[in-house]
Design a protein that fits this description.
This protein is an alpha+beta fold. 55% of the residues lie in helices and 20% in strands. The longest helix has 78 residues, at 176-253. The chain is rod-shaped and about 155 Å long. The two termini are 79 Å apart. The structure holds adenosine-5'-diphosphate (ADP).
């Protein structure tokens, strides 16, 4: 058992040292609870003090009036008893009320709420009568306790016509109602505090989970970075042998006297190496884009000549498939701001796809402009795409899988890269397509303002 506790304790300490934010949260929680307790206590003290002051004031005001009456009616105890009964009936906190005569320094009760007291010595501490002589014009209050109940004892001297103290008025008022209310308030405070504690605990648990997630997220980012670094390094390493293979394939092709079979075999090597080279290029681009390392060298470029050149590059492929490939351009298409190599890559990807996904008919590449933008439209009469198929078209590794595409090789990276590059050069790309009829890819760039 102690082992388990020790293990959990050290795990907890390790977790806290790794995540110092948790200490901050606990600190905030403690501060909130302490402040709440402090403010509640302060508030409660003020309420109790005010209530007590109010009660004292109420009793001494009553004495002010009653003393005048007692002065006049000192020889009429029955009358005084009647008034005492009436006053006590109206003030439910009053538990004792008496008039104490002072005859030759002897004290005895002449009228009281409790008739049993009449004729006897007062039960109160004699000290309170002496204290009241300090200022016979004022009432003096004393707090006394009887078991768990608190009382206020208020005493006031009654001066006779010659200025001598002839009697005292003594009242006792119970504070049990106030105390019950205070206890109830304290209880409510503890209930609220319990609620706050519960909320804080829930928040702490949530916070701990968020800290867990953030640790996991940091770790995942590190792993992702490691993966990107590896992909980037591996792709670079693959590039050199591929260049060598393609170089030697070219060299072999130039040898005289090769048989048709040999030539076909060398072509296959070249095509496969080129395919692999393109794939490595795409993977490198994805890794650069992911790491934000894809450099874009923006400059004034002639969109027309770049598009025309890139399109012409597919003439041979298109002819082989029996497709017509046409490039048209409006008059005086203005220059745009872009990276020429990346712009070429965009055109190559779109025209390449159009040729790749068209079995018969035509591919048309058209450049036009209006006052704000230049538009490139790559249209084909190919397999087209349904609305459902187009939904994720520009996502990484997305390929449409159907009978028309199963024979076509690809990675699903081209359109994602194309979109990223276009957006980095402040352009937009959209697609219109009808399944079985063909597709239009529309790319727009703002015209550079000089
Ligand atoms: P890849 O061609 O390597 O599969 P892309 O990202 O270039 O990857 O294209 C994603 C998918 O979009 C392709 O698999 C294809 O199904 C569809 N697609 C792209 N261009 C066209 C097009 N011109 N006509 C029909 N489908 C297309």
């Amino acid at each position: 058992m102690p082992n388990v506790i020790g293990e959990n304790l050290s795990r907890g300490i390790r977790f806290i040292t790794k995540n110092p934010q948790i200490l901050y949260t606990v600190f905030v929680a403690v501060v909130i609870i302490a402040s709440f307790l402090f403010v509640s206590q302060l508030f409660l003290n003020i309420v109790v003090e005010t209530q007590e002051r109010f009660e004292k004031h109420r009793l001494s005001s009553m004495h002010d009036v009653f003393v005048e009456l007692a002065k006049k009616e000192i020889n009429n105890p029955t009358y005084l008893s009647g008034v005492i009964d009436e006053l006590a009936g109206r003030n439910e906190t009053i538990t004792a009320f008496s008039v104490v005569r002072n005859v030759n320094d002897k004290r005895f009760v002449i009228a009281a709420l409790d008739n049993d007291e009449v004729g006897k010595e007062p039960t109160q501490n004699p000290q309170i009568f002496n204290t009241s002589l300090i200022d016979p014009e004022s009432s003096f209050s004393f707090e006394v306790t009887d078991g768990s109940e608190r009382y206020f004892q208020v005493v006031r001297a009654v001066k006779g016509p010659e200025g001598r103290v002839i009697a005292w008025v003594v009242t006792e008022s119970s504070l049990s109602q106030f105390d019950a209310l205070t206890r109830k308030n304290i209880q409510t405070t503890y209930f609220v505090l319990g609620g706050i504690l519960l909320v804080i605990i829930i928040l702490l648990i949530r916070h701990a989970r968020i800290i867990d997630y953030s640790t996991l997220y940091k770790r995942l980012k590190e792993v992702d970075q490691m993966k990107d670094d590896f992909v980037s390094m591996a792709s670079h390493e693959l590039r050199s042998p591929l260049t060598v293979i393609r170089g030697y394939a070219d060299l072999l092709k130039s040898i005289n006297g090769l048989s048709e079979q040999d030539r076909q075999n060398i072509d296959r090597i070249d095509i496969a190496a080129r395919g692999l080279d393109d794939l490595v290029g795409d993977i490198l681009d994805v890794s650069r884009l992911n790491q934000g390392r894809l450099s874009i060298n923006m400059q004034d470029v002639d969109f027309v000549s770049i598009t025309k050149d890139a399109t012409l590059g597919f003439q041979h492929n298109a002819e082989e498939k029996g497709l017509s490939l046409a490039f048209t351009s409006g008059d005086n298409v203005p220059h745009i701001q872009a990276d020429p190599d990346r712009l070429r890559q965009v055109v190559v990807n779109l025209v390449g796809n159009a040729v790749k996904y068209t079995k018969q008919g035509e591919v048309a590449v058209k450049l036009s402009h209006d006052k704000d933008k230049v538009t490139l439209r790559v249209s084909d009469s190919g397999i087209g795409m349904s609305e459902e198929e187009r939904k994720n078209l520009f996502q990484k590794f997305y390929r449409i899988k159907n009978d028309d595409t199963k024979e076509v090789k690809g990675t699903g990276l081209g359109l994602w890269i194309t979109k990223q590059i276009i957006e980095k050069m402040n352009g937009t790309i959209s697609v219109e397509s009808i399944k079985g009829v063909g597709s239009h890819f529309i790319v727009q760039f703002p015209i550079s303002k000089k």
